[in-house]
Amino acid sequence: MKILVVYNPAAGGGREALLKRLVQALERRGADVEVYRTKAPGDATRHLQARAHQGDVVVAVGGDGTTNEVLNGLDDGVPLGIFGTGTANVLARELNLPRHPEQAAEVMVNGASLTVWPGDLAGRRFMMWTGVGYDAWVVQGTDLGVKRRFGKLAYVLAMIRQLARYGTTDYRLRIDGRDYQARSAIIANGRHYGGRFVLTRQADLTQPTLQVLLFNAPGRLALLKCLMALPFGAMERVDGIVSLPAREIEIEASEQDEPLQADGDPAGILPARVTVAERAVLVRVARDSA
Ligand SMILES: Nc1ncnc2c1ncn2[C@@H]1O[C@H](COP(=O)(O)OP(=O)(O)OP(=O)(O)O)[C@@H](O)[C@H]1O
């Protein structure tokens, strides 16, 4: 079995020792392993697209951003393995993937392939979410130096800083042909968000649908209340939040240059169209979770 490991040395501040243990564990299981170290943002996608052969499994070693870049370069039908060495690794949690290199290698070599439907944001696929407004500002405003040194604390600081901006932009969303307004929106493909928290119980990676959360909380205090409900998995029940399933979403903003985020990284500016991707991908998971 040929396994191509795509390793992001910048994710989670670098995890060389874990990478080495994963490669050894894969080789012990008879895999022929090649490691590609990414050199810059976007490199994982470019490298994969330029290769004639990607092997039997491509493994993303990094965080959600790395997995997103690998997903966008992956050939049809090649299963994706995920080993979370990033800051939050939300997708790895969603799929209940092992954190230990030995168990992770077992999943990649002898696990099952789960069919997952990614989302599509203007021709680029995403696994977990895309978002506008507060959600995108937090991603845009996260200090990469602080993230490298202090991990998730960088997100918390950005969340506090961006609160003041909430309500300054209105978003118009056309969701499966119906018009909505919001002050912020998250389009979820998976259930988790910001680590171990459950954002929505309605999302399901294995179904070709998305779940849209519209935030119409009237002010910053109301937004704060929504955020405080997140660790309890109760955000959808807070006043001012509308949660609805969708397959096609068009988004516009009242202001210019409004950013989007996708899988926790900046992903261009509005307007944008979001759909379910045309093709599913296979993701390696433990036999009992498939
Ligand atoms: N060699 C590199 N140097 C600097 N940045 C890189 C390199 N290779 C990839 N990147 C970028 O690193 C960014 C962060 O990666 P990733 O999201 O995987 O890790 P993380 O932010 O630590 O984790 P998480 O998203 O799970 O919180 C990605 O946007 C990716 O484009």
TrEMBL record:
Pfam families with a match to the protein in the record: DAGK_cat, YegS_C
Ribonucleoprotein in keyword set: no
GO molecular function list: kinase activity
Keyword annotations: ATP-binding, Kinase, Lipid biosynthesis, Lipid metabolism, Magnesium, Metal-binding, Nucleotide-binding, Phospholipid biosynthesis, Phospholipid metabolism, Transferase
Ranges for domain DAGKc: 1-128
Keyword rRNA-binding attached: no
Taxonomic superkingdom: Bacteria
UniProt-recorded name of the protein: Diacylglycerol kinase family lipid kinase
Species for this entry: Alcanivorax quisquiliarum
Lineage: Bacteria, Pseudomonadati, Pseudomonadota, Gammaproteobacteria, Oceanospirillales
